[in-house]
Amino acid sequence: MSPDPADNRFARDPELAQLHEALTRPGDADDHDASEAGADERAAATLLPALGASMLSPTVRRYVTELLIGGENPTPATRQKLVEAANRGLRNRRANRAALPALLAFKRAEANIQVTELADALQVSAEDVYDMESGKLNVRHLDAERIAKWVRTVRADPAVAVGALRHVLELSATSRSPQAAGRRRTGQLSDTDQRLIDEVATLLDDVES
Amino acid sequence: MDDEDLIQAAREGKEHAGPFLVSLYAPMLLGYARGLASDLGDSACEQICECAVERAVRKIDLYDPTKGDFAGWARSMLRYVALDYRRDNARLQSIDGLDLAEPKAQSSREIPGGVTAALTEVVGQLSEPDQAILALREIEQLPSQTVAALLGISDAAVRQRYSRARQRLVRIAQNDQRLTSFLRGGPA
Questions:
Q1: In angstroms, what CA-CA distances link B55 with A34, A53, A167, B90, B179?
Q2: Which CATH number fits domain B113-183: 3.40.50.670, 1.10.10.10, 1.20.1440.60, 3.40.50.300?
Q3: What's the whole-model pTM score?
Q4: CB neighbours (10 Å) of residue B66?
Q5: Gap from B99 CA to chain A (nearest CA, Å)
Q6: CB < 8 Å to A73, chain B
Q7: Are A107 and A95 in contact (CB under 8 A)?
Q8: Above pLDDT 90, what percent of chain A?
Q9: Which value does ipTM take for this structure?
Q10: Which CATH number applies to B3-95?
Q11: Which of A31, A54, A89, B62 is most deeply packed, by most CB within 10 A?
Q12: Residues of B in contact with A19 (CB under 8 A)
């Protein structure tokens, strides 16, 4: 196969056109001396996996992207599947930024765990689970052990869950100093809230390690 | 909406980011999946693409624009998904008693910062055509036939250019004292 003279993919960018021409020029690969033939294969095997895109010149990076950008247009059905995949990713991102009840409700749905199953695991009623997930039941009324169990049962990421717990406690902080009352800032955590976060983090850490 | 706005919208989990991202990058990812994993068939390629899109959105915080463009980063997500798919598939096949070749795995060796800096300089000493052929074969992990089709040259020509680019990379690296220990398999 020889280069197509009508190949005008890079017509708008002379730098890329020049690189493409150099790369596809016939016979250009043969004009190097034979002393290179004995290159150390072991060194190559060490070096090559360490290569990364950030090591390439900006022109080469652009060239590779331009070369691969065309691809193929998805059928409507495939496009729909890809949009749904992107939306799943976005929903996951939103959940990870949410307060703990919303995060854990999302994770339960994602893991396809029934309310009754979660209720059994936590030894509470199904109504309690709904109240916990909707935020109707204040998370402060749960002990650290139960929160950690909730996180583990729905298979939420411990670090994300601890962040989400902090988030919900800050949102509903009641211990803001009178000086802070007029300011628009996140509520400060009481010692009790901080202790709850630390205990949950420790319990989740214990399971992780 | 430019790329930066779109990536920011995805970071914030905004709903409109999904269809836009798919419109911009799905054709590239589908084409890339077919080039990377043509042996797996159309349905697997689409499945890989789907997982890659979801993973790219979930992990979009990890994208660092100083290290390359978003398209390249999205392709790296697809490579990981394709590798996972092959691993899972190989496991299933081995359960069935079939003997499958192990897929080429990404390096799990930790690359020290000093080595990355030295290697970046070494790569910078290569000509741009050498860098491009190494990028397509090694970084993008495309088979030589796919590269040949993309470039419009023969498979033999791709193999020859790639082999020579590799040799030149090794020769320059071997003359760099900062890489001596790394090339011997030790710490940098």
A1: 45, 20, 25, 22, 34
A2: 1.10.10.10
A3: 0.70
A4: 5
A5: 25
A6: 27
A7: yes
A8: 49
A9: 0.82
A10: 1.10.1740.10
A11: A89
A12: 128-129, 132
